[in-house]
Amino acid sequence: MARTALVTGANRGIGAAIARQLAGRGIDVIAGVRDVASAEGLLADIARSGRQGDAIGLDVGNLRSIRSCVAALKRKGRVIDILVNNAGILTGEKLLEMDGAEVLEAIRVNALGPLSLMRTLGPAMAARRYGRIVNVSSQWGALAHLGPGAYGVSKALLNAITVKVAGELPDCVKVNAMCPGWVKTRMGGEGAPLSPEQGADTAVWLATLAGNGPTGGYFRNRKRLSWLD
Q1: Which of 22, 146, 152, 228 has the most crowded Cβ, counting Cβ within 10 A?
Q2: SS3 of 229, please?
Q3: Is residue 50 part of a domain?
Q4: How far is the C-alpha of 154 from the C-alpha of 8, rounded, in Å?
């Protein structure tokens, strides 16, 4: 029986590359996206790979949307074995110049939304004795390299959440964070040296770890990073 992955922000960029590569490994994929129509191209690619692909409405910055998404999955009988928290936003340059609403939005999307999904889906993974949770972070979430505005702060919070959740879930549920590197996406810009496919590699590796794989770690290029630098 095939595993099923929920990938947030899967309609483009790194998220779409993660979804395609998971499908290529025989995994069914549900794309959690704000606009379901935006995932049509991705779903066509997944279908061509011979796997089942679906899209579901999900705004990770909105708790009501998260609850609605999880309820819809339950109604449809979809069991999530793999959660990839990929959706994120980059706003502001200087934290002191951002208003409170902007800061809170970054924290909701980049950290609290992923936490809500982990809180909802993680215990069910533990009950089934299998789960893989991948949090797409950034080197800008390491304390020595905090990124601009609220982005670095929110990614540092996501890193801290990764450590705590990994410690609270049993080892059969692997919970890890990763840095994709500087990737050519809408966020990364055209000058970035890596393709979305290259940026997706470590996330896909973590999403398909064997039972003796790591948990509670922070990785880039499949190698462990320091949480600090």
Answers
A1: 22
A2: coil
A3: yes
A4: 17
Q: State yes or no: pLDDT of 197 exceeds 80.
A: yes
On whether residue 26 sits in a domain, the answer given is yes
Q: How far is CA 51 from CA 27, 81, 151, 179, in A?
A: 7, 15, 34, 27
pLDDT tens by residue, 158-182: 999 999 999 999 999 999 999 999 8
pLDDT band at 191 (very low <50, low <70, confident <90, very high): confident
How many domains in the chain? Answer: 1
C-alpha 46/C-alpha 64 separation (Å) is 28
- Is 188 a member of any domain? yes
Residue 229: inside a domain, yes or no?
Answer: no
For 16-40, what is each residue's pLDDT tens digit? Answer: 999 999 999 999 999 999 999 999 9
pLDDT at 1 over 80: no
Helix (H) / strand (E) containing 69 = helix 63-75
Full domain range(s) for residue 48: 4-224
Q: What is the largest CA-CA distance in the chain?
A: 51
**Residue-averaged pLDDT of the chain:** 96
CATH number at residue 64: 3.40.50.720
Q: Which two tokens stand for residue 96?
A: 């002191």
Which of 84, 114, 141, 151 is catalytic? The answer is 151
E strands of 50-130, at which residues?
A: 53-57, 82-85
